[in-house]
Specification:
Helix content: 10-25%
Number of domains: 2
CATH superfamily of the largest domain: Pseudouridine synthase I, catalytic domain, C-terminal subdomain
Number of helices: 5
Largest sheet: 10 strands, mixed
CATH class of the largest domain: Alpha Beta
Distance between the termini: 21 Å
Number of strands: 10
């Protein structure tokens, strides 16, 4: 059966998350239903990351196995037609080797978190950013974030529901930048690692917001990490503003996609 890689964008607000669930809408289910319109049978796709309810993606990757030998461009066009009106789009499609796997072949995941600083409620950006009503000290947040870089036991920043076998992960990058967005000043967090624990990014951002607000000293992030206790974590921020922006592979499967 020919295997295809899919580059996927979606608005996470209407979904219970990426992963298929029995009684709640999911992104995986929406794509599998569209595939069933093209080849009527049960379809199971595999995604590179299991984003939570309300989390968005600009660069999620999944793979599907088809019976027919589809032209990759026509497959993406047909899927986009049948995905309507769900806020899910196939940005690119490419034929890959039969043993290529969207999750297990990946070497890194990249996330963006957008935090909007303004008192007025977000309207056009509602659900796309986390709004806080006070200014934040970006330099202090960078100082706190520096303690998180590298290989650590991230138990403090791991959801109690996390199913990963080990809390030890390597955080390769956590860059924080203040930008002038269309809706107002934003603080943007860009993170990169081979893989992340459940709620790890939202735990980082919620904790660093406390640093930026002056409620935590930057050194408290170091102490929280060393505690290896979930109770030492700062608040977990909402999913609004979190995006899976890309997945890295030894060879980009979409480099020659139509």
């Amino acid at each position: 059966m020919p295997r295809y890689a899919l580059l996927i964008e979606y608005d996470g607000r209407p979904f219970s998350g990426w992963q298929r669930q029995a009684s709640q809408p999911s992104v995986q289910q929406a794509i599998e239903a569209a595939l069933a319109r093209l080849e009527p049978r049960a379809h199971t796709i595999a995604g590179a990351g299991r984003t939570d309810a309300g989390v968005h993606a600009r660069g999620q990757v999944a793979h599907c196995d088809m019976v027919k030998d589809w032209d990759a461009f026509r497959l993406s066009e047909a899927l986009n037609h049948h995905l309507k009106p769900a806020p899910v789009a196939i940005r690119a499609c490419s034929r890959v080797a039969d043993d290529w796997h969207a999750r297990f072949s990946a070497t890194e995941r990249r996330y963006l978190f957008r935090l909007l600083m303004r008192r007025a409620p977000a309207t056009l950006e509602a659900g796309q950013v986390w709004r806080v009503m006070h200014p934040l000290d970006v330099d202090a947040m960078r100082e706190g974030a520096a303690y998180l870089l590298g290989k650590h036991d991230f138990t403090t920043f791991r959801s109690v529901m996390c199913q990963a076998q080990s809390p030890v992960k390597t955080l390769d990058a956590l860059d924080i930048e203040r930008v002038e967005g269309l809706a107002g000043p934003e603080v943007q967090f860009r993170l990169r690692a081979r893989s992340f624990l459940h709620n790890q990014v939202r735990s980082f951002v919620g904790t660093l917001e406390r640093v930026g607000a002056g409620a935590w000293a930057p050194e408290r992030v170091r102490d929280a990490l060393a505690a290896r206790e979930r109770a030492a974590c700062g608040p977990v921020c909402p999913p609004d503003g979190l995006y899976l922006t890309g997945v890295g592979y030894p060879v980009d499967p979409f480099s020659t996609a139509s």
